[in-house]
Every structure is written in structure tokens, then in C-alpha cells.
Amino acid sequence: MRDLVSCFSESAVHVSHSSCSSYSSNACFSPSLVPSVQDAVTCLYRIILSTTSQLFITVTWCKSPIAGQGLSIKFGDETSASFKLNTNSRFFRKKKGNKVIEYTTSKIEVFWDLSAAKYETGPEPVEGFYIVVMVDSEIGLILGNSGEEIVTKKLKNSSPVAKVSLITRQEHCSGNTLYTTKAKFCDSGTSHDIVIRCSGENEGLKHPVLSVCIDKKMVIRVKRLQWNFRGNQTIFIDGLLVDLMWDVHDWFFNPASGYAVFMFRTRSGFDSRLWLEEKLLEKEQDRIEFSLLIYACKSP
Fold it and tell me: Got the DSSP string for 71-132?
């Protein structure tokens, strides 16, 4: 009997690197179009320590014309256990240092260096930085391309390393109805290029059309979007079933303050079973699924 994933994948849209070569770079949009700009990026990490206890860490990068580049790290659900840094503020220019935070019965220490961080258009640095979080002398989280260097040079090499999983990534953007990003849908997978484009009447179309491309391959094309403003599609990436859901209701009916929402969520084949054997259910409880949420504001 075939496994359930293979049965689902037959009706899903497949995305593979071997098929990308047959698609041009403007499969979803013209190179002359300017993508929207990220305003904030929030990542939720699950940290499993050597004591088998777990800690959730929320890292948020933000950018605004008034406040400039900003960073905040929250531990668990306690607002008091947090770390904030505004890298552009004249009142706080400390782009390198460390800070100790007390969280329940744990001692958390944050090391950071953003003094040489390089940014593109968004709030999240792309290189030249590091953020290291220690939890009770255990390495909990390492971010940045120079994070391993700080661990090797300044921290004890014998320090235990926690198991880290990225649970959710949220990206807020504003500008044109064209959005580009990258995402890995599993730890062992590759990084994929994602393009979301809403074409309108000003481009010669009678009705708005929503297009989503992954690695230059169009995975969905929704016509008459003002009537099909909510929906979902299953795609198959890196051996995983990924649910792609969209809700662009506010683009049409609440344009002044509303966001369109796009979500990519991985799932196993067992998620759609009508029944679950006890052993299979126990096995799935330890599996971490990944969600990418995109909140897109359309400028007038």
C-alpha cells in the first residue's frame, strides 16, 4: 500500500529545482516592477535544552522612518523578560554588548554585535552580525553569519548546545502588490524563492489576478480575485505537503487599514486522515511544523 503523502502529492502542485530552468525570471512579474518593502519580521523559535525543558524565543526586527532599525527578543510569554535595541536611536547606540535577563528560574544572557551589520531593503540584517542567547550556560540560539565565531572565541566550547526549531516566521510589508521573500520549509531543505503578485486593471486586465511563484514556477493563479479573495492550494516541496492559503479581502473592502494575509504551512500526510492510530499520533506530537505568514499592506 502506498503511503498517504504520495497519494496527496499526485494532486498537489510540485516544485522542484529540476523544473526551474524552464521558467524565465519574469514568470510572475516584470523586472521593472519594484517589490514592496518589509516593515517587520518576527520569528518564533522553540528551544529544547539539555534538561529536556523547552523555551520559546520570539525575535522581531522592525524598521520605520521615525524609529529606524530595531530589534526585540522576548522569552516565553512574560513581557518583562525581554531585550530591546534600537540601532539608530541617538539615545541608544550600543550596537555591541551583552545583557543578563532573569526568566523564571533561569539566567539568560544575550550577546550581540550589530556594529557591522549589513541590510538590504528590510529590517533584518543579511550579514556582518551575530546574536547569541545563552540559557543557564547552555547555547540556546545563534543568529547571524558570525555567530559561530563568538561561540568559539568567547564562550566555552564545552557548553552544551540546545536543539532549535523555527516554528513561525511572520513578515509585514507595504508598498506595491508585489512581494518577494525566501523560505526554508524544513531544516534539511533548501532555500526557496517566493514571489506573490497581484496584477490589476492598470496592466490591461479586466479583473485582478493573484499569482504565486516558487523558484520561478507558478504554483497558483487566481482569476477574478475580488470574488475569490479567500482560498487555499496544496503544493509539494522538498518531499513535504505545504498548504498555501490566502485572504485578500481587505485589499478590496478595507483598503485604508487592512492587510492581505498569505500563509504557507507544512503538514504531514497524516494531518488529513479520518482516523489516527495511537502510535502514529504519538509520533506526530514530536514533529515541528513550520508556518510562513505574510501580511501585505497595499499603499494607495
Answer: EEEEETT-TTSEEEEESS-TT----EEEEEEEETTEEEEEEEE-TT-B--SSSS--BS-EEE
Grid coordinates of 267: 503538514
Which H or E run contains 134?
strand 130-135
8 and 47 part of one domain? no
Is-contact 261 295, C-beta < 8 A? yes
Dist CA 136 CA 105 (whole Å): 9
pLDDT above 80 for 93: no
pLDDT > 60? residue 220? yes
Same domain, 293 and 198: yes
122-126: average pLDDT: 90
DSSP for residue 161: B
Determine the pLDDT at residue 171. 96
Is-above-0.70 flag for pTM?
yes
Please give the grid coordinates belonging to residue 276: 489516527
In this structure, the answer to whether residues 182 and 291 fall within a common structural domain is: yes
- Per the structure, the complete domain to which residue 236 belongs is given by 4-35+176-298
